[in-house]
Design a protein that fits this description.
single chain, mainly alpha, 5 helices, elongated
């Protein structure tokens, strides 16, 4: 006869575990954890979306600004105010795209500064392109991908040590004024 376990209950039957208790280790599923230094797919996707979208926007700006200037300088042009506004809008979008391309590349190398600057530049670009329905959605999606999933932890980790640099020893920095 088995002795009742606490609270007057019999022990669990063979192959079962007590209610409220975690299952034994051999029954728990083992999920392999991703390497924390492996670049998350969301960061790669955000970077690719940023670079491709910025190149497209830059090419459009490169063609539209000179066309707008030519139209503005045309004496038969009727509405110079709208044309000037469009020239300025395309020029600003071109400059933002020119800034976003290297930031998109730097994000791939775990640059926290590039991540923040890309968030700022992307937010401004999304606001400037509100009347183009798909473009702000792509910008917002790319920016969100830099912060969701494993991306936050990946950016929070320190970069792996440079294998070409000699290992540093604690206290082996330049001498302080007290040591001189």
């Amino acid at each position: 006869p088995q002795q009742p376990q606490g609270w007057g209950q019999a022990p669990p039957a063979y192959g079962q575990y007590a209610m409220g208790q975690p299952p034994p280790a051999y029954l728990r599923p083992h999920y392999p954890q991703p390497d924390p230094d492996t670049r998350p797919g969301t960061v790669v996707a955000a970077s690719v979306m940023t670079i491709v979208g910025s190149v497209i926007a830059l090419l459009i700006s490169v063609f539209m600004v000179p066309a707008g200037i030519a139209d503005y300088n045309d004496p038969t042009s009727s509405d110079k105010g709208v044309t000037l506004a469009m020239i300025i809008w395309f020029a600003v979008c071109g400059v933002l795209s020119l800034i976003a391309i290297p930031l998109g590349i730097m994000v791939l190398f775990r640059s926290k500064v590039a991540r923040i600057l890309l968030t700022v530049v992307g937010s401004v670009a999304a606001l400037l392109s509100l009347f183009v329905v798909l473009y702000p959605a792509l910008i917002i999606a790319a920016l969100l991908m830099l912060y969701v999933g494993r991306a936050g932890n990946w950016f929070a980790r320190k970069k792996p040590a440079d294998p070409w640099q000699p290992p540093s020893m604690p206290g082996a920095g330049p001498p302080t004024h007290q040591q001189l």
